[in-house]
Amino acid sequence: AQRLPDVWAASGKGPSRITLPGDQWTTYDETDGLASNEIPSLAVFPNGVWTATSHTEVREGGLVTWGDGIYRFNDAGGTWERRTPAGDQASGPFQVVYDLTYYRGRIVAACFAGGLVASSDDGVTWDNIFADNTARSDFQNKVYNDLNNRYFAAVVDTTRPESLAVWAGTAYGLNKFVYLNDTLKPRGHIFNDIHIDGVRLYGATEDGLSR
Predict the structure, then answer these.
(1) Least C-beta-crowded within 10 Å: which of 90, 139, 142, 181?
(2) What is the pLDDT of residues 50-71, one digit of tens each?
(3) pLDDT in tens, 130-144
(4) How far apart are CA 200 and CA 210, in angstroms?
(5) d(CA 192, CA 211)
């Protein structure tokens, strides 16, 4: 018989899993490798089940949400492996991963106060995706005042076959990052000459001719 897919749910006590057609949920917590039990985001991708963790602390009379990193589920061992960025994106005060998305083997995490980050090696290394130089400077200088670098949500649009777009919602608005197929990109970056024949644009670059 064909095995039905598992169903996952994010809760305040940890990620929970049920294997259909069963009726018993398994909930994972710190004893299974997680840093904390609050789950702000959880997603199932072709390369595994991913979740973010967080907790709240009382600071100066108010509640502060702390990010506790990103984890991937090890199905063979039934435990969670820490795959969080080495920087301040997903671990620290207000640096909470509120959404996760996936495209072309890359995991993208929308982090509040930590920016938009992506990994192409299953969470071993992560890189920030900055909307502009202001967002880059705000994060690198640890100012954290740029609302356009405070992310709540991210989704991948694959409706156009020649490209894809990552839509990411921030506290300031909506950002769109477009990734073109290689056939739509110029061969190089240094343009020595350009020419228009009335229909097409030709560019002579350090790596060859593009049309």
Answers:
(1) 142
(2) 999 999 999 888 999 999 999 9
(3) 999 999 999 999 999
(4) 10
(5) 14
